[in-house]
Amino acid sequence: MARCVWPLPQKISQFAERYPLNPKSFAFLYANNSDVQLGCSVLDTAFKRYFSLTFPGYSGEKERIQDRLAENPSFGGYTYALVVSVQEGDCDGYPNAESEEKYNLSVSAGGGLLVAKTVWGALRGLESFSQLVYQDENNSFFVNKTEIEDFPRFLYRGILLDTSRHFLPVQTILKTLDAMSYSKLNVFHWHIVDDPSFPYQSRSFPTSATSTHVYTQTDVRRVISHARLHGIRVLPEFDTPGHTQSWGKGQPNLLTPCYHGGKPSGTLGPVNPAAGSSYQFMTRLLKEISSVFPDSYVHLGGDEVDFSCWKSNPDVRMFMSKMGFGSDFTKLQAFYMESLINITGSLKKTSIVWQEVFDYHEKPKLLSVVEVWRGGCYLCKMRKVTRAGLRAILASPWYLDQPGPTHDWSPYYNVRPLAFTGSEQQKQLVIGGEVCMWGEYVDATNLAPMLWPRASAAAERLWSDEEQTCSVSDAFPRLAEFRCRLLRRGVQAGPLSVGHCRQEYQDV
Q1: Residues paired with residue 144 on neighbouring β-strands, in sequence order
Q2: Which H or E element spans position 220?
């Protein structure tokens, strides 16, 4: 019985002919003509990882996996091997915004062949191969003759985790990265700080961390390293000028003093955009962030800024008058964000902002990437953003923390990111989308069943051809099977309907 692949490949042909696989005599091997060979950190570790994923429950001979890698890539001694050929070697780098993830996979009687331009494409092909292998009623392993030509529809396929409202242990983040790779998601948007806490332990500002629960520099490096080995980018977000109440505890004079009746009220508002010291602080922090996080993108936030405190502060109002902003505080926010975008640009980083920054900006051409998140007609906003010539990321329909039944995945599957009126050039500016899991009511106890397999529904929408994946009823049995695979791999994915899996989640 052939097995399907989730997300659905662009082209897949499967046949009834099947081949037995014996874990004792199976190997992943580098092709002789591959530009990368033994010693490639990304694929060496992936071969070991995918051996266990391909043959779940098999415990013998694990010590021989490294021996297999070291042997000559021929079929001598193996009854079956998947030979991997990568055309461009980049084993020490990080996935980036332009990384090629295309791969071709051929499974036949003589063995399997996986060809990819990059190691990142090879990782996606290894995931597909692992999903093709299945067990019969006697627990023997098989794979059917299969031909796959595959590539992602969108280059940006992300998940946002919020680690300020509830701290997520590093191990929980690492397990989420594992599960992301199973669905071929490739961007971890780390909304690391917010109003409730500042859990990032800064080198430049060590007093900024405002909680006993913090991510040390070692923790951050561990997350970035784990993500790299799974072909996942780590996109940090340090949201300002709003959502910064926790920042003020470690950085005096950063936030705006609020006034009431002409006197300081004792409360603080957003980052003070009238103080030069604010920009000095942000320059130092962004410089550190740029050195710690290797990705070429950084998320600057810019959403939900409450102007009432700015309006009450006489120094801010004086600055507004000096700058000729009148009483339009959206111009003040635009000035602040533009300053940060310029700082980011000087550090050779591309900035992403939430959609309010676009809404308030008279010169949108200064922006680079806009993330559309607000409700209402999000496709209308996608049309406006792309009409301005800006790249867009869609998040609005994929807020999985919202109230509602966690088994209902169809609304996330039915999203059509390009279903707005616009030119082909506009559609090409949509670089992808992401699932957002905000942390008000989510921590390590319920994160996985809240995310999975609903996030996998969004993942197929962002990877696969839309015309081939337009039927919820056709997708349901495939997603149900994939959910069972997640359980067997140790992901506590929630149920979709009545029923059971052959192997249930074991860690409860």
Answers
A1: 18
A2: helix 217-229
Per DSSP, the three-state class of 88 is coil
| Residue 17 annotated among the catalytic residues of the structure | no
CB 106 within 8 A of CB 112: yes
What is the DSSP secondary structure assignment for residue 493, as one 8-state letter? Answer: P
Helix axes 472-488, 454-463, angle to 10 degrees: 120
Element (H, E) at 121: helix 119-132
First to last CA, the chain: 30
For residues 154-167, give the mean pLDDT: 97
Residue 60: per-residue pLDDT: 61
Instruction: Report the pLDDT averaged over residues 157-163.
Output: 98
Give the pairing of strands 391-394 and 430-437.
parallel
User: Which residue is catalytic, options 17, 88, 304, 504?
Assistant: 304
Q: What does the pLDDT read at residue 260?
A: 92
Helices (H) and strands (E) in the chain, counts: 17, 17
**Contact of 457 with 412, CB cutoff 8 Å:** yes
Dihedrals phi, psi of 141, to nearest 5 degrees = -95, 140
DSSP E strand boundaries for 117-155: 134-135, 141-150
Query: Smallest Cα–Cα separation from 29: which of 88, 83, 80, 89?
Result: 83
Cis amide bond preceding 241, omega within 30: yes
Supply the DSSP string of 2-46, one letter for each residue.
----SSPPSEEEEEEEEEEE-GGGEEEEE-TT-S--TT-HHHHHH
Question: pTM of this prediction?
Answer: 0.95
* 466 three-state secondary structure: coil
- C-alpha 61/C-alpha 247 separation (Å) is 52
Q: Is the CB of residue 24 less than 8 Å from the CB of residue 79?
A: no
